[in-house]
Amino acid sequence: xxxxxxxxxxxxxxxxxxxxxxxxxxxxxxxxxxxxxxxxxxxxxxxxxxxxxxxxxxxxxxxxxxxxxxxxxxxxxxxxxxxxxxxxxxxxxxxxxxxxxxxxxxxxxxxxxxxxxxxxxxxxxxxxxxxxxxxxxxxxxxxxxxxxxxxxxxxxxxxxxxxxxxxxxxxxxxxxxxxxxxxxxxxxxxxxxxxxxxxxxxxxxxxxxxxxxxxxxxxxxxxxxxxxxxxxxxxxxxxxxxxxxxxxxxxxxxxxxxxxxxxxxxxxxxxxxxxxxxxxxxxxxxxxxxxxxxxxxxxxxxxxxxxxxxxxxxxxxxxxxxxxxxxxxxxxxxxxxxxxxxxxx
Length: 345
What we know:
ABC transporter involved in vitamin B12 uptake, BtuC, transmembrane helix, 77% helix, single chain
């Protein structure tokens, strides 16, 4: 079955030793870019630090002011690495299971479900603080389950049904959120701080809470690479090759929901990362999800942390929230990627 699958996908997927070597070298460069933007995240801020000082502070921390500044920036940077990779991979999975190139983590109601859960939890329990993740992830998961159930119908889920049901559930949930927040000032204040999407001001404990979830989700996404390649050929072809389209969609939706829910709970809804990064990566790797997921893990943090660094620079001594910056710096890259892909958009 493996040989047949590779033969059928030969025109669209990366194949051959030379191509694989090139993609491997490109992945190394992507990881180098991730390391560079990580160093910049630790260096840039109200107190600018040379990269040499950052390296010394990481390798040999002491009681100096520079080491204290670096230590305060480490949780924010780690959060950016996790959330960037998680959102980018979630977007890739969404696009794969729906066969919709414009899909992102909000397509199946994930962001809306997490937001609605945050609002409902705040109404019942008051300010959630670090407990937000325990409320947002189930909310995102429940919304995705409802969308999947509505979009399945009697003949199973289809891309069109999933997209339409996701749009409908998102509209209903967002209407409910607006109704609650506009009539409850205390809930509005909490929601306003969370919904803007930011890596700043998040407690370091958030990293400890989400990293196991994100790491497991990323590993699961890597394992779904070949089934997603089969699914991309169409349900009938996938069944002929021994695949299970329904199971692949269910597992892909589950992993994407967990990733997006955990990331959204941690930093708030950040748009564009899950939409732009897969498009950008696809111009490098083609349609092979085995490489797509790996590259998204490397380049998702580059976009998110890069946006965070830019937000600190352009509004110094203050800063722009990363959710605002991602739209501005991501749109040109997405436009170029879509044009090069020949999608006709």
